[in-house]
Design a protein that fits this description.
By secondary structure, this protein is of the alpha+beta class. It contains one helix and nine strands. Helices cover about 25% and strands about 40% of the residues. The strands form two sheets. It has a five-stranded mixed sheet, with no helix packed on it. It has a four-stranded antiparallel sheet with strand order 1-3-7-6, with no helix packed on it. The radius of gyration is 23 Å and the shape is elongated. The structure holds copper (II) ion. Copper (II) ion binds near residues 34 and 115. Copper (II) ion binds near residues 34, 115, 117 and 119.
Length: about 130
């Protein structure tokens, strides 16, 4: 009997360690999940033949459109469009209409969003509008 007990305790100890490891994984998850940019159109480093009417950014968690801003800037830093539109049915997405008739070149999408978990996430990326062939 007394021989078994330490073994059992050892098993429980291992289970507890596994649970702790699992907890650490879950505890780390929110840091990754809070509204980081996970997808966009156009996306970072994309080359597009035509400027999309609307740029769309998708985040890892819900964002608050009223407290979020997207902008499209020219390669030399001029803000061409600014704002953020969100829909209740797609709480992780924000859109911004692009101005028409933009010249080929490099553009920067900048974002500053309020996650529903209260964190502010910001960043930017560039994409390229190619000249028509
Ligand atoms: Cu967060």
């Amino acid at each position: 009997m007394s021989m078994i007990k330490p073994t059992r305790r050892g098993l429980f100890g291992r289970a507890a360690a596994a649970a702790a490891a699992a907890y650490l994984l879950f505890a780390a998850a929110p840091a990754l999940a809070h509204s980081f940019l996970i997808d966009a159109n156009p996306s970072s480093k994309d080359h597009v033949d035509a400027m999309p009417k609307t740029i769309k950014l998708k985040f890892g968690a819900g964002v608050e459109p009223a407290y979020s801003t997207l902008s499209i800037e020219s390669g030399d830093g001029k803000v061409l469009a600014k704002g953020a539109v969100g829909k209740p049915e797609t709480p992780r997405e924000l859109t911004l209409d692009a101005p028409p008739d933009l010249a080929p070149g490099r553009y920067v999408v900048r974002y500053r969003v309020l996650s529903q978990d209260g964190h502010i996430v910001e960043g930017n990326y560039e994409f390229f509008l190619d000249a028509k062939k």
